[in-house]
Amino acid sequence: MSEQTVIDERIDHGYTSDKDAYLRRLKRIEGQVRGIARMVEEDKYCIDVLTQVSAINKALHAVSLGLLEDHIAHCVVGAANESRETGNPQAVQEKVAEASAAIGRLLR
Amino acid sequence: MSEQTVIDERIDHGYTSDKDAYLRRLKRIEGQVRGIARMVEEDKYCIDVLTQVSAINKALHAVSLGLLEDHIAHCVVGAANESRETGNPQAVQEKVAEASAAIGRLLR
Amino acid sequence: MSEQTVIDERIDHGYTSDKDAYLRRLKRIEGQVRGIARMVEEDKYCIDVLTQVSAINKALHAVSLGLLEDHIAHCVVGAANESRETGNPQAVQEKVAEASAAIGRLLR
Amino acid sequence: MSEQTVIDERIDHGYTSDKDAYLRRLKRIEGQVRGIARMVEEDKYCIDVLTQVSAINKALHAVSLGLLEDHIAHCVVGAANESRETGNPQAVQEKVAEASAAIGRLLR
Asked: Helices B46-71 & B90-107, crossing angle to 10 degrees?
């Protein structure tokens, strides 16, 4: 397999190569949300509930960041190559704008 | 029921008066997390997955904010009354510090 | 000075007792913003500029958190005492709602 | 000017093409920070100070987002082209990792 192929492989996959890892993390987050519901059910102290909510926020941030990194490495870089080949910058501009909008939604 | 009792009632409950509402919201968030897992499973476009993650962040923020407001209205105000009665400011200082630490964890 | 007075003193001040500390921190943040402008002026690497922006975010968060803690210890607790005396919960409810709205704006 | 040159131009600049706009925005943020110091100086109500801090947070987020978008459109896409030409994915991988780390610092 040539170096060039290695780049293409890397570029063409996105998050799907880590699909199982993402699914495991989401499963864990789902369990954390259920854990919070249980704490509320049992009238646990509000500050302890809030600490758990912060833990979920952190876990979700990690998932977002992973997806964003995959998006940039996959879709943006793929589109950059496409724009390079076609001489039309539209493909890459669109993907960059999409990534930026997604980051903006996460920062809010 | 006297006005005074109304204040006490309000003060002594915390989030437990809205328990069912919190449980419904957490149930919905749990479903949203499962929905994201399904999107990953089906190789949905990463930006669309990220949009859903942002929606969960927002829903969790709303839950946090509700719990914080309940904590301040309940525990901080309750401790203020306690400190007022005992003449010892420690009770209220502790609750204020706890609230502040919880807000700090959410801001991070 | 009686214990009771100590509580009242604590309650009646808010951030004004730490005014100089806040002013020093804001001065430093102002300098950090000017530092970023200088980096942009000198075409510094964007990632290094972003690292500095993150540092300002952090410094501003610390200021917000301090102000919030002062607000809760000062205005909310003061209003709790007022409501306790007048038997009218409106004063404390208003301050709690204000604090919660301010936290919500910071979380967004 | 050929289409290809247009892409290169876009790629080679980063935030420097909008330098004046960034400097104006940073000037305004600097003024906002000074405005907050003045509010503290004059013992303005803490909630009003906090509202202004939230406004600065928002303005800084907008600057961060602009810089990030420029970084992706400039450095990441430039490195993608370099990796494409040299057949060595390291250049693009480094820039993607840098962008991701910067986003992570902003999300925290």
From this structure: 170
